[in-house]
Design brief:
alpha/beta, TIM Barrel, 16 strands, 2 domains
Length: 513
């Protein structure tokens, strides 16, 4: 049994069948929905008529589907009629309240939300509150976890749920300590390894709710965070449905029937190539990654345990050093004798000594990796063309990192720069024939590149970002086939199993029965 506390049936009614099918496909017994805008054009401070229309949309969705659902009344605290809208929605069956980004306006505080939260206390209904902590700053009316915690203290009898666990969840750890009325919703954001375990340690499994943020995020990628979490089965059940059932006052059997939870390892799917090969992982010391990277030998053992025969691995201690050649040599020595770990030499075409580094790499490595995202240079910079040409002339394969982790949650001291779609297309027009594997790019990049017929035919795309979002992987396969896609785990930021598991489920679900 799964209750998804955080979903949105945005878009036209033609999207509703897909929404329902997504729930059924991945075992979501009951989605809890809120609608911020019927048409999907989100306004941070919607006028009353837009709020009412969104709530009517949510009510209609629940009435027109045979899937058990609950809906939350979406309110804008800045509107004078918020309490009247709440009463109207509750009379029509709303089970709680959803608040998004309209907490503050024109330099004001959050006081406009107080009457709504007082009403929630009186009526005994939960309030799902969008919380965020972006490296580059929140929207003007957006609430951070610290402000959420202050509201929970002010209204101790109101059940308040911090949606997305603040997004950049490590910054919120400890914020809900001593607040029995406050809960984490783990929906959306980057499906990071260790999040669930850390939050269980922080507040206990009885204060965590499963949510997906579907269709913004794929249900299956968000489920993976719980499925592979190192917690016991009872704690997983609390997170997946029991806590939500309690807060929503649902009358459910103690042990509801139905199919068992999703199996940790689905059958391999013939659509996916190289399911035993990983094109995106790190090993060695990790000066900037939030997760400790294993040594090459430790990674070798992890790969064997999970049936991965080959992993093209970057040395994380080479990411931010001026002695790249020394770091590459150390990685090569550490991986000596490994049969599964294939080390990649870190190269940087933006530094003057790239030619010497390339010459060393050619003699000792099966390929190289470059980091336009982490090292803040442009793929299509004309100054880098000699580098691409030299690699192509030597037939030296290259892995190209377009993103690592979630840019919105990067360390504030890092000047990372996401690769743009037009930048990628321009690279494709200029790139000489060679074997390229792009890491961390999403549907917009892959779709634009393949639809324009850009770049060498040996250009492949690692699919971790495609699995994160509803229908993105399926759409690319439907349009272009699976031949240009490869698997990558982004380990250790993700569990090494989750991308493969998610992709297998998505591909199996997309095939005709």
């Amino acid at each position: 049994m799964i209750i998804d506390i955080h979903t949105h049936p945005h878009g036209g009614r033609e999207t509703w069948p897909r929404f329902v099918a997504e729930c059924r496909r991945y075992g979501v017994t009951m989605p809890v929905i809120s609608c911020l805008s019927p048409g999907g054009s989100l306004q941070h401070f919607p006028p009353p008529r837009e709020v009412t229309a969104g709530n009517a949309w949510a009510e209609q969705f629940c009435a027109q589907t045979d899937l058990p659902t609950r809906w939350l009344a979406y309110l804008n605290p800045q509107n004078d009629n918020s309490l009247e809208e709440l009463d109207r929605c509750l009379a029509r069956g709303a089970a709680g309240i959803k608040l998004w980004t309209a907490f503050k306006r024109n330099g004001s505080g959050v006081e406009r939300s107080y009457p709504i939260l007082a009403a929630a206390e009186q009526k005994g209904i939960p309030v799902l509150i969008h919380t965020w902590h972006k490296t580059d700053g929140n929207e003007a009316g957006e609430l951070c976890v610290r402000e959420f915690a202050e509201l929970a203290r002010r209204f101790p009898r109101a059940c308040l749920i911090a949606a997305h666990a603040g997004g950049n969840w490590p910054y919120g750890r400890g914020a809900l300590a001593g607040l029995p009325n406050a809960y984490w919703d783990i929906s959306g954001f980057f499906p990071e390894r260790g999040q669930v375990e850390a939050l269980v340690e922080d507040v206990g499994a009885d204060h965590i709710l499963f949510g997906s943020d579907m269709p913004g995020r794929s249900v299956i990628s968000q489920l993976a965070k719980v499925v592979f979490a190192q917690i016991d089965a009872d704690q997983k059940e609390q997170i997946l449905w029991r806590n939500a059932a309690r807060l929503l006052k649902l009358q459910l059997p103690a042990q509801p029937g139905g199919p068992p939870a999703l199996r940790p390892e689905p059958e391999e799917n013939g659509l996916l190539r190289g399911q035993d090969t990983d094109h995106f992982c790190f090993c060695g010391r990790a000066p900037v990654l939030d997760h400790a990277c294993p040594s090459a030998r430790e990674l070798e053992a992890i790969l064997a345990r999970h049936g991965i025969k080959t992993a093209y691995a970057a040395g994380s201690d080479s990411l931010y050093t001026r002695d790249t050649a020394g770091a590459n040599a150390a990685l090569r020595a550490a991986a000596a004798g490994c049969t599964r770990v294939v080390p990649l030499a870190t190269l940087d075409p933006s530094v003057p000594g790239w030619a010497q580094s390339l010459e060393h790499a050619r003699r000792a490595f099966a390929g190289g990796i470059v980091f336009p995202y982490l090292h803040n240079w442009r793929l299509n910079d004309p100054a880098g063309q000699p580098f691409w040409n030299a690699c192509a002339e030597a037939r030296f394969p290259l892995w190209i990192n377009g993103c690592t982790g979630d840019h919105r949650a990067r360390h504030r001291g890092l000047a990372c720069r996401p690769v743009g779609v037009e930048e990628l297309l321009d690279f494709g027009r200029r790139a000489p024939p060679n074997h390229y594997v792009f890491q961390g790019l999403g549907r917009a990049h892959v779709d634009a590149f393949l639809s324009n017929g850009q770049g060498p035919a040996e250009t492949l795309f690692e699919m971790s970002r495609l699995t994160d979002y509803t229908a993105h992987l399926e759409t690319i396969i439907e349009r272009y086939g699976p031949g240009r896609l490869v698997l990558g785990s982004e380990f250790p930021l993700r569990d090494i199993r989750t991308v493969r598991w998610t992709a297998q489920h998505q591909c199996a679900a997309s095939q005709p029965q």
